[in-house]
Amino acid sequence: MKHILVIDESQLFRDYLRQKLEAYGFEVSVAVSGLDGASKLRTVLPDLLIMDYHLTRKPAIELLKEKAADPNTASIPVILASAKVDRDVLVEVARYNVRKFLNKPIRVDALLKAVGETLGVSVEIDDTPCIIEAHVNDDIIFIEIAQGLNREKIDLLRYKLVELMDLYDLKTPKVLVMMTSLEIDSAETMKLNSLFSTILEVTGCIKKYFKVLTANAFVRRFIEERGDFTGIEVTGQLDQAMDGLMGKKVGGSILEPGPDPREDLVSRTAPKKHKNESIMMRFQEESAAPARDFTTLGDTVRVSIVDDDVIIQELIRTSFSDTKVQVDAYSNGREFLESTDGRTSDLVFLDLMMPEMDGFQVLQKLKEEDLRLPIIVLSALTKRETVVQALKMGITSYMIKPLKPQTVRTKASEILQTNF
User: Fold this and answer.
1) Is 131-246 assigned to CATH 3.30.750.24?
2) In Å, how far are 82, 224, 262, 378 from 265, measured between CA atoms?
3) Which candidate in 7, 56, 57, 327 could, as Cys together with 51 as Cys, close a disulfide (CB 3.0–4.6 Å)?
C-alpha cells in the first residue's frame, strides 16, 4: 500500500483528499502547516508528498530544502499545488523533485492522474460525462446537473456544499436540484441515491424545501418510492419549484416598476465571508481547448444572434471563429423572424431588450407558430420573474450579461451536443 502525505492548511481540502485517496486504496497522512508537515515527513517517510506552496510556520521552499538535504526523504516525489505562483518560483522548486505543479482550485481528475503517474499505479476514475454546478442565491442552493451522473463529482459535491454552507453562513438552506435535460435510468440507481443522500446529509435541508426540477419519469419514481426521500417535491415546472422555495407566486407583468429584493436565480449572492471558493467541480478536460466540442456536429450547424449590440454580436462570432459553424446576426427580432435562415437555426442567442421587436415578442411569436428552436436568452436583466417568464415561454437556457467567449462556447456546446 502506497503512503501519501498531504500538507495543506485547508481542513476542507485535507478531508476531501484523505477521503478520495483512501477510497483508491492509498494510506494517507495529513499535516496542517509547514512545521507539522516537516515533522511528519521525517516520521512517516511517505511514497508521495502532496503539498500547498503557501504554508505557515515553515515556508514550502524551506521544507523542500530540508527534504532534499535528508537522504531518507530526498527521493520522495512531490506534487505541488498553489492558487498563485510566478515562473521564478516554479523554476526554483523544480530542483527539489517536484514532479507536478497543479493550480488551485485543483481539478480532481488532474490530481488523480498525477498521483497515478508519479507512483506508477493505476488510478481509474469514473469518466461518465457529467457537469455539476452549485451556487447560492438568497439562501437557496442551486445545483445544476447535466449530461449524466459521475461518481467522482458526486463525491466532490459533498465538499462543495460544505464550502458553500460555510462561505454563506447557511444554517437551514433550501435546495433546488435542476436536472432538466438529464436522461437517467435504473442503471444509475446507486449514483442517484448517493446524490440525494449527500445533499440531504450535508445541507440538513427540510424536505419540503428540497425541490427537484426534472421531467425524467425514473427520477420521479425513485424519489416517490424511497422512504428516505419522502417529502421531496419533483416537478417539471421551474416556476412551481420557485414558488415553493420563495413563497411568492410567479405571475403578472415582468416589467412592473418597483424594486424586487430577490435577485435572479442564476447569479451568485456575495459570500458573507471574505474567502474564495476552493472546490472546483469541473474536470481538467472540460476546460481544454474547445475546438473538439463541435467536431461531431458536421458542417451545417447554423447559429443565430439576435441582439442590437454589435459588441455582443462580435463576441459570439469570435466564440465560434475556429469552427465551421455558420453564424448569422440580426439587430432586432423582426429581422430574425423575417429571415428564412433564422427560422431554421440550430441554436439562437436572443437578447430580451431590443428596438422594434424585443425578445419577449419574438418568443411569443414563435410560440404562436409552434416553431420550436433551441434558444439561449441573453440579458442584463436579472430579476427572478424575468428569467422565470422567459423559461415559461420555451427557452432552452439563459445567460446573464456580460458574457465571456468560453462560457458562450461551453453553453452552446452542451445544447448542440444534446440536440444532435
Assistant:
1) yes
2) 32, 26, 9, 14
3) 7
Which grid coordinates are listed for 206?
427540510
CB atoms within 10 A of CB 147: 16
Query: Which residues make Cβ contacts (< 8 Å) with residue 416, sequence separation at least 6?
Result: 294, 297, 301, 346, 347, 374
For the chain, which residues make up each domain, given as ranges?
3-119, 131-246, 289-419
Backbone region of residue 73 per phi and psi (left: phi > 0; alpha: psi in -120 to 50; beta: other values)? alpha
Residue 1 near residue 27 (C-beta atoms within 8 A):
yes
Taking only the tens place, the pLDDT of each residue in 244-272 is 787 654 433 333 333 333 334 444 556 77
Q: Cell 419533483 appears where?
A: 234
**150 by DSSP, 3-state: which?**
coil
Assess whether the previous peptide bond of 402 is cis (omega < 30° from 0). Answer: yes
Angle, helix 189-203 to helix 151-167, in steps of 10 degrees: 10
Residue owning grid cell 416598476? 257
- The burial class, CB within 10 Å (0-12 / 13-18 / 19+), for 130 is buried
Q: Tell me how many degrees the CA angle 331-332-336 measures, rounded to the nearest 5.
A: 95
- Check for a shared fold between 131-246 and 289-419: no
3-class SS of residue 166: helix
- Maximum Cα–Cα distance for the chain, whole Å? 78
CATH of domain 289-419: 3.40.50.2300
Give per-residue pLDDT as tens, 68-127.
999 999 999 999 998 777 778 888 888 999 999 998 888 888 899 999 999 999 898 898
CATH number of 3-119: 3.40.50.2300
For 101, phi then psi, to 5°, come to -115, 130
Q: What is the pTM of this model?
A: 0.64
Between the CA atoms of 33, 34, 40 and 42, what dihedral angle is there, to the nearest 10 degrees? 180
